[in-house]
Amino acid sequence: MKNALYILIVCLFFSCEDVIDLKVPTSDPKLVIEASLNWFEDSDGSEQQIKLTLTAPFFDNQVPPANNATVFVEDSNSNIFTFLEQENTGIYKTNSFIPELNQEYTLTIIYDDQTYIGTEVLTSVTPIEYIEQNNEGGFSGEDIELKAFYTDPANIDNYYFFEFISDIPQIPVLEVYDDQFTDGNQIFAFYSEEDLQQTDIITINNYGVSQQFYQFMDLLLQQTSDNGGGPFQAQPATVRGNCINITNPDNFPLGYFRVSQAYQFTYIVQ
Q1: How confident is the model at residue 136 (pLDDT cuts 50, 70, 90)?
Q2: Please, how many CA atoms are within 13 Å of residue 254, restricted to the half-sphere of its CB?
Q3: Which residues contact 217 (CB under 8 A, 6 or more apart)?
């Protein structure tokens, strides 16, 4: 596949136009797995979904779905939960999932005659207890900052994944934390947005995650930070998740299979 970016250069001194054919490196499409099974408080966790897409050339505007895959999850009690695709969307759903803390689950995806698997344990999490608001944050001293406090269980290695959702940024703000230096203490997750105002509604999701997911997401967030560089700068290495291709290991997938206990906290900015 050949991709070209045409850049128009206007030569002021010579009144000419040059066309540059910029060749962008491409590769065969890879399967992208978005498999986050979340057991939220006050739900039975039976309804879950997995999204499968394919990588696309950098300048494409659409992300193609991975259609007609066979998708199922099996627990260590030999219960099998089949995920069915919804109208060629690449979104596969089930309404029979059984969540159980500390239970091991194995995801199997058969797509394009290749089999992908990933294994994870459903990890517990402690709920958010309260929010502390600071109206004098940031470099300007005028930004609103929020601290979401929770108490870490003692003598257990814990890893946390926070998702802050508001109407301001187009995508959620994501953060990961561990308890290496805060074991057994009350600690907080931090959120700041310079355009945050009174009456804005912030939804905070807190997920219990494994050490492997913590490390995966920590690397991913570092690479997608504001200092990550543009498309024409040297790109960081691909961050691999916990899913492997057992048919063709060289054709590894992207994404992650995660199973979490989760709590949701809704906060109205004061």
Answers
A1: confident
A2: 14
A3: 161, 174, 176, 209
